[in-house]
Structures are given as C-alpha cells and as structure tokens.
C-alpha cells in the first residue's frame, strides 16, 4: 500500500501527468472543424439510435466524480478557459481511474461516471483506493489549474456497489451501465463535502472488513427516499 502511494505521488508530481499527447489526433480534428472547413457527417435521426442490453446482470463498483459549483465557475470563464479547465480535471481523473484498474463509462458535462470490472474483494479495494487517490490529487491538480490562471478546483467523489445491466448503442462501441448503483452513486454525491469521498451502504457492507480505511456515517445526508439509506465518508 505504501509503495502504491509513493508511486502515485511521484507520478502526479511529474510533468507527464498533465500531458495528454494521446489526444493529439482528436485535438487536431477539432481544430480543423474550428477553422471552418466543412466535414460531411451523416444525418442521424431519432430512429437511428438503438440500444442493446445484456441478458444478465453483473455486480460492480460504480463511481461518480463531480466538480463543485461548476455552474458558477463556468459562467465567468471564456470558452477557451472553460475547455482547458475541464480538460485538466477530466483527463486527470481518467488517468487516476485507469491507474487503479477502473474504466470510464462516460462524462456527463463536468462529471465522470466509471466502474471497476473486477468484482473481487481486491477489485473493491482498488475502487476505494481510487476514490482516496482522487481526493489526494486535489491539491496537485488545483496547482496545475491555477498555473493556467484558472479558478481553484473542488470536487466530490462517490461510489456504490450492486447489480447493473450492460448496454451499448448502434452509434458507439462503448458500453454503458444502468441499475441502482449508477443512480445511487449520483444521488449520494452531494452528501460529500468539498474534496471528500463517500460510499453507499451496499458498498460499505462489502468492504467494511478491509483495513487501512475508516468509514464514518454521514448523518445529515438526505437523498430523497422515504426510507433512509446510510452513506459513509471514507477516510484512509
């Protein structure tokens, strides 16, 4: 565990962490569009969007990371500044997720939805470590963002565990997930304070025996259900 922390701290303090060379082709394509050159694209009507679902459900750890006060922040930034702000945040979070064995499902505005394909206890530990690593990265990412003369960054991380169904569409090879954990990790996200990591009860019951993590119930959290659903703050 200590070796992992040292390795992570070394990486996030290196200039390579904030290098996104693998996206060069995408950036070039976007710049061509911005320069006004016409690129023919097929017209897609609503009937062209089709989905296919798996016939079986699987249990995964599903996570959600969201910027705090993004609406207020975006209102006072130019398009160029906002693009850089989101680029640094989303790409940094994506790298941390990948380092811990997780996979990004999609971004929803300034949020990232992700999951961990490994449903063993070790995989669940990786999910916890990932959330903690995200929170620990806040200072370094904020310093990078402020070096670009952009506002400081705060965010919340949440996760839950349970059965989901995989789906994909005819216009993308990427998978998506639907099910209670997806909905729940989004709902409980606001239960976290700035730069905090919370998990739902189903996940906490699965991982509570793990050492090196402490779980403190968030008493004031209301997620809009008639019956309460315990939410826990994760501390390393």
Describe the structure.
This protein is α+β, with helices and mostly antiparallel strands. The protein has one domain (57-235): Nucleotide cyclase, GGDEF domain (Alpha-Beta Plaits), CATH 3.30.70.1230. The protein has 8 helices and 8 strands; from the N terminus they run H-H-E-H-H-E-E-H-H-E-E-H-E-H-E-E. The chain is globular, with a radius of gyration of 19 Å.
Concise overview:
By secondary structure, the chain is an alpha+beta fold. The protein has helices at residues 2-12, 24-34, 70-75, 79-99, 121-136, 138-147, 180-187, 201-207; strands at 51-67, 103-108, 111-116, 155-169, 172-178, 196-200, 214-217, 231-235.
Label this structure with key terms.
alpha+beta, Alpha-Beta Plaits, single chain, 236 residues
- Give me the count of strands: 8
Main sheet properties: 8 strands, mixed
**Strand residue content:** 25-35%
Number of H- or I-type helical stretches: 8
The helix content is: 25-40%
